[in-house]
Amino acid sequence: MKLNQSSGKLKLKQGTTGKTKQVSAVGKKKSPPSRGGLLGRLLMLAFLGLVVFASYEYASLPSAEPLLKQNPKTTALIEQRAEEARDADQKPRRRQSWVGLSNVSRHAIDAVLLSEDASFYLHEGVDTKELENALEDAVRKGKLGRGASTITQQLAKNLWLSTDRSLLRKGKELILAHRLEESLPKNRILTIYLNVVEWGNGVYGIEAAAREHFGIAASSLTAAQGAILASMLPAPRKRSVTSGSKALMKRAHWIIEQMEAVKRLNGEQAQLAHAEIDQLLSGKKAEEPEDEAEG
Predict the structure, then answer these.
(1) Rg of the chain over CA atoms, in angstroms?
(2) How many domains does the chain have?
(3) Is residue 277 part of a domain?
(4) Backbone φ and ψ of 108, nearest 5°
(5) What is the pLDDT of residue 120?
(6) Is 252 helix (H, G, I), strand (E, B) or coil?
(7) Which domain holds residue 58?
(8) Cβ-based burial of 240 (10 A; exposed 0-12, middle 13-18, buried ≥19)
(9) Tell me: the pLDDT tens digits for 220-251?
């Protein structure tokens, strides 16, 4: 897999062996740091202090090494959703089928990477620049948001942590993300992520999502379908093909634009994908307000 971002900020290469290598990025001329940037750096230092505090619990946090050869039987998120269902006097629902990367459409993988973590094959689990920006945003809004979490961080949270938004949980998330990166190759991390991430009510993993939302296998997903599934990830229980979410349609079209920009689709393919998105999502509720990302 080769992911080449036309803006010049990053280039990704993945060989057939699954090994990755970093290609030098073309940077822009640096300007003096803004007040916002300085605030972000101060927040980063404070946050790193919290990570040090969370490190005292390091020994009690789970190891990622068993995941090298074993698929997790369940996750913290799956168990949390089951408990929520029982609390509501409902039967927990779980649809999940494991597949390897070779059994997932290349377009769907590209869509998820570009939507959730375009630098996945370059970073070591944490995108420090995005984290700094997210901390600045959190100060402005007065609460932690979903942004800045890499695929590795999202996986750590799904496997072992709750969905609450707190600095302590974020500190644990960073430690566990580091453990995942130390113990597993990138393709294994991506494989587990694609098989456990939530894609609707009781729907976990891309194979179950493809069958639930489109009635096909993950290997058969088109670029448009992959973009729609990737667009669901920020709020998987609110956004679906039938939800009428304006945010879903907007995000799906944006992902196709990114896929064309980094040459994962040519112009004709992108045009067809845009038309397919409109067809798949047409006739839904037109005035639904944009939904907020879930934890």
Answers:
(1) 19
(2) 1
(3) yes
(4) -70, -40
(5) 97
(6) helix
(7) 41-64+78-281
(8) buried
(9) 999 999 999 999 998 898 898 988 889 999 99
Cα angle 197, 203, 204; round to 5: 30
Compute the mean pLDDT over every residue in the chain, rounded to the nearest whole number.
Answer: 82
Residue 286 carries which DSSP code?
S
- Residue 42 is which amino acid? L
**Is 196 domain-assigned?**
yes
Which domain CATH number covers 107?
A: 1.10.3810.10
**279 pLDDT more than 70:** yes
Q: Cα torsion at 205, 211, 214, 219 (round to 10°)?
A: 70
Per-residue confidence at 78, pLDDT binned at 50, 70, 90? very high
Which helix (H) or strand (E) segment holds residue 11: the answer is strand 11-14
- In angstroms, the CA 274 to CA 255 distance is 10
d(CA 130, CA 195): 25
Helix boundaries (H) for 62-150? 76-87, 106-116, 128-141
The H or E element spanning position 43 is: helix 35-55
Which residue type sits at 93?
R
What is the number of alpha carbons within 13 Å of residue 153 lying toward its C-beta? 25
CA torsion 123→190→256→145, rounded to 10°?
-60
The yes-or-no verdict on residue 292 having pLDDT over 70 is no
For residue 66, the one-letter residue type is P
> For residues 138 and 119, what is the distance between their CA atoms, to the nearest angstrom?
22
Q: Per residue in 173-222, pLDDT tens?
A: 989 999 999 999 999 999 999 999 999 999 999 999 999 999 999 999 99
Is residue 289 one of the residues assigned to a domain? no
Q: Looking at residue 257, what is its pLDDT?
A: 99
> Is residue 82 in a domain?
yes
CB atoms inside a 10 Å sphere around CB 269: 17
Q: How far is CA 87 from CA 42, 80, 84, 92, in A?
A: 41, 11, 5, 10
CB neighbour burial string for 139-165, b if at least 16 within 10 angstroms, e if fewer: eeeeebeeebbbbbbbbbbbbbbeeee
